[in-house]
Input
Amino acid sequence: MMMNRMLVLLVCAGASVIAWSQADLFDLLDERQYHRTPLSTALLGSSYNGSTIVVYGEGGVIVRTRDLGAHWEQFNLPDSLHVLFITNDGNRFVGLCHRWFGIVSDDNGQSWSTRPLADTADYWQVIEEGDYLLALARDRVSVYDKELRLVDTYWLNPPDSSDVHALAVTNRYIVYSPAKGTLVVLDREQRTTQRIDLLAKGCSACSDIYQLITDASGMVYLLSTPDRSTGAAYLISYDPARDILGDTIPTGIRNFGREGKLLIRSGKLHLLRAAPSSIASYDSLVFAQLDPNTRQFVQLNQSPLERYLRRPNIINVRALTERIIVAVGQSKFIAASFDGGVHWSLVSWCPEGGLYLFGD
Output
């Protein structure tokens, strides 16, 4: 209903312009007279400093809640600041953008300042490791401390030429996928690389890798598909220290993995994915944990979403605490659980062709 009113107002304003002076028209078109709020964008991740949850993404959009999801508010940085990653440093929030800048907030996300970065590479992926942030670019992994100082650089050979930019980091290794069916393992101590042909190792499901994640033991897990056109996704484990591939496990994810992502929570591997609901053509969410004995995913959430989705594109899911888990994605998708994944709520979702804003 609000959209209809807005359209009527715009049409009426356009009709009135004919009788206005040129000065009035220029004043009307002066964007400084307006406050712009992006209604839909790709959200890339979330962070928590103990009192405030922030969700961030492309176009400088940052959304926060200070009461565990009861109320949300949006802040808009300059459009050019695509925020790739935010973490907390005590009460502070510290983040890296796609290029040139980092961002810092000392007031729970109410205001943000930019910090120019020493490296001007375009970053695609950021991994937090202790007190450091490792940022993946085409030909390097740049290491920043939480004061946003560049402290190290690992040069990639071969460079990352994929369109997915998957990255995993262990104490000893950096693992990335530069091309179809391929992993590269960079030894951080020796500064040497080893290229792994997964298809030659017999992993037919490893053609397209779109997520890498590692656990505390240094095991790397791949989400991949044998065929992008069909999109069925599989989980494969890989031990970079011993160069050993594990079993291929179905995940139930469709559509080249856009509808599901892995996360490590309490040292265990979990999966959040879209799943068909009882309503035709609509989806709900399944949150599952990998059973190490049966090597199958066991569903943990006990009830479906109170609202339904249609093939959401989930970009990131992160366990902020033992009980707080936040998933984000395309079209301003935010879903959250505040009880360890048992129940989930849809905070926002603005797909093309419709507008769905939930809460305040």
Q: What stands out?
A: The longest helix spans residues 2-16. The CA atoms of residues 50 and 171 lie 26 Å apart.
